[in-house]
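Subject: sequence -> structure tokens, single chain

Hey, anyone have a minute? Need the predicted structure for the following. Not urgent.
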Amino acid sequence: DYSQMNDVGYIRRLIEQAAATYSIDTARIGLIGQSNGGYMSLRMACEASDYVTSVVSIAGSTFEDPSSCRPASHPVSVLAVHGDLDDTVLYEGGDRFGEPYPGAQETARRFAAQSGCDPDNPLAGGEVDVVGSIPGAETTVIAYPDCADGSRVELWTMVGGPHIPFPWVDSAIDAFIDWIITQPQSR
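Reply:
Had a minute. Here:
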């Protein structure tokens, strides 16, 4: 019965088991997820902000009802990456499996507010080359200013990008990892 599953608790236990086995800085936990994994990483930012410091959500979204995302006990840095031609999780938002969801811009705006940023005045942050099959730096960056405790929230829109961009540009994968590693510890 899926309604009885505790995915947040399960992921917390996985992280705790990894920390007990490997040398992990538990004050700096970051998650990266694509599609359903992107949804889950954003859910962790909502429900485990005492534990998770940063997330990269690729082609994910969040709860349709903003009140379903608990107020953060700590700011979580969020990098939302989404293709504007994604036909699985629509960039503009929509309905997936009978569940409505907000678009990429609204999702980023909500997490900006959640992290104490100015959600209404995002700043242009340049362009990044993410998708190898699209010539040039196709991904536009917007960043939300004035986030709490040094946290960051950005939306990277892959212009012409699909649900699963392929091939990834190696430097983009490095940028995702750098995002996770360089986020401040606000605990």
